């Protein structure tokens, strides 16, 4: 004879089994989530930290290498500057850089010929520079004046170009140059006498060798 209460008992017993399966199903994702969280934290604390440190070390090594290369490159630059400063001879120099100085001027003759007056003068130049010159260009200006007067009037000018031979350069010491400055008589009312004229001489260009 079948017990009428058995089916009810089976239903009652089966209900807790279903509940346990649901509980297990809910627990597994939670455990997996915990594993994922631990794995992420491990990556951040372990592999990520090691990678960052490695990159920082590599960057530091690259920076040190760049500094060393720049430091090494400074020495050749300094050497090249020193070599360029040893002796470089320019093609030409101006009045300020030539080292040529006009130390004296002197008018020793004034002549008149027809409508022209010629002032003959001598000037002395000293080489105080470091170059030896093969060619030198001077400008000489003549002025009409009066004895014991500071006033003067420009009446003429000329250029003197001195070119030295290979065995007779302007190395040092002094050189004297004689020059004639000719101008129209109408340019000056001064007498034809050295006391009534003055001259100035200046270096315009010098070519070292």
What's the short version?
By secondary structure, the protein is an alpha+beta fold. The chain has 2 domains: 1-88; 95-208, Immunoglobulins (Immunoglobulin-like, Sandwich), CATH 2.60.40.10. It is built from 2 helices and 6 strands, in the order ααββββββ.
Describe this structure in words.
The chain is 41% helix and 36% strand. The chain folds into two domains: 1-88; 95-208, Sandwich (Immunoglobulin-like), CATH 2.60.40. It is an alpha+beta fold. Strand 3 and strand 4 form a beta hairpin. The protein is built from two helices and six strands.
Q: Taking strands numbered 1, 2, ... along the chain, how are they ordered across the largest sheet?
A: 1-2-5
CATH topology of the largest domain, which one?
Answer: Immunoglobulin-like
How many domains comprise the coordinates? 2
Order of helices and strands: HHEEEEEE
The percent range for helix content is 40-55%
Name the CATH superfamily classification of the largest domain. Immunoglobulins
Number of discrete helical segments? 2
Q: If classified by CATH, what would the architecture of the largest domain be?
A: Sandwich
**Morphology call:** elongated
- Give the number of DSSP strands: 6
Overall average residue pLDDT: 76
**Briefly, what CATH class of the largest domain?**
Mainly Beta
Q: Give the low-confidence spans.
A: 1-15, 65-71, 75-79
Radius of gyration: 52 Å
Sheet having the most strands: 3 strands, antiparallel
Based on secondary structure, the structural category is alpha+beta
CA-to-CA gap between the ends? 142 Å
**Fraction in beta strands:** 35-45%
């Amino acid at each position: 004879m079948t017990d009428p209460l058995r089916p009810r008992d089976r239903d009652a017993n089966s209900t807790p089994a279903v509940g346990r399966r649901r509980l297990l199903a809910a627990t597994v994702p939670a455990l997996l989530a915990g594993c994922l969280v631990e794995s992420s934290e491990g990556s951040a604390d372990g592999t990520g930290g090691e990678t960052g440190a490695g990159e920082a070390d590599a960057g530091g090594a690259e920076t040190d290498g760049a500094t060393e290369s720049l430091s090494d490159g400074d020495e050749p630059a300094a050497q090249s500057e020193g070599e360029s400063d040893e002796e470089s001879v320019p093609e030409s120099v101006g009045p300020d850089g030539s080292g040529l100085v006009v130390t004296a001027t002197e008018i020793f003759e004034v002549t008149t010929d027809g409508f022209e007056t010629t002032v003959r003068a001598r000037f002395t130049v000293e080489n105080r520079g470091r170059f030896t010159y093969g060619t030198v260009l001077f400008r000489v200006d003549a002025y009409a004046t009066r004895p014991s007067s500071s006033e003067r009037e420009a009446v003429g000018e000329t250029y003197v170009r001195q070119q030295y031979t290979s065995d007779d350069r302007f190395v040092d010491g002094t050189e004297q140059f004689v020059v004639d400055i000719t101008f129209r008589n109408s340019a000056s009312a001064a007498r034809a006498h050295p006391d009534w004229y003055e001259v100035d001489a200046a270096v315009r260009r010098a070519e070292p060798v």
